[in-house]
Write a structure and sequence with these properties.
SH3 type barrels; 4-stranded antiparallel beta sheet; 3-stranded antiparallel beta sheet; 16% helix
């Protein structure tokens, strides 16, 4: 009964109930106080409770896979030794001019391209110079030094 009196006092204090409604609210609150207390729930039977809070429908198996948090850069790397360009099997397809040097662009028979600057090593020798239309290299075979010159082939277009 104390709870219903407190509730009635709060409703009057906050202005949600008028003084004329007081007898009617008192009768409603009185009937509520006589009703059985249903606010406290009886403990549920064990069969009503789920076995787990959340069903696990997905399982990630990491057996045999790498750790996703391990660094990709860590570990031993074997540097791959790239074969040197054989100037007897390539052709000069272009020349790039940087601020003070030329860079020769050569292409082999498989379509792979290489950029060559003066001083770059090639198979059996080194590149000596690159000009606007010529690449010159010195090759040493069986103790004899030869000079190889690759010229830029300009395609003539017939329009």
């Amino acid at each position: 009964m104390k709870t219903s009196a407190c509730l009635l006092a709060c409703l009057l204090a906050f202005g949600t109930a008028r003084a004329a409604d007081t007898p009617r609210l008192a009768s409603v609150l009185g009937s509520l106080s006589q009703a059985p207390d249903t606010t406290r729930m009886a403990p549920a039977a064990d069969s009503d409770l789920p076995e787990t809070l959340r069903e696990s429908s997905y399982f990630y198996s990491s057996f045999g896979t790498r750790d996703p948090f391990r660094s990709l850069l860590a570990g031993d790397f074997e540097p791959r030794i790239q074969d040197l360009v054989d100037l007897h099997t390539v052709r000069l397809v272009g020349v790039l001019s940087a601020s003070d040097e030329f860079i020769g662009m050569v292409q082999d028979s498989q379509g792979f391209g290489y950029d060559l600057r003066p001083g770059d090593p090639v198979k059996n020798g080194t590149v000596v110079s690159v000009t606007s239309d010529v690449l010159v290299a010195r090759l040493t075979l069986f103790g004899q030094t030869t000079q190889v010159t690759l010229r830029l082939q300009r395609e003539e277009r017939g329009e």
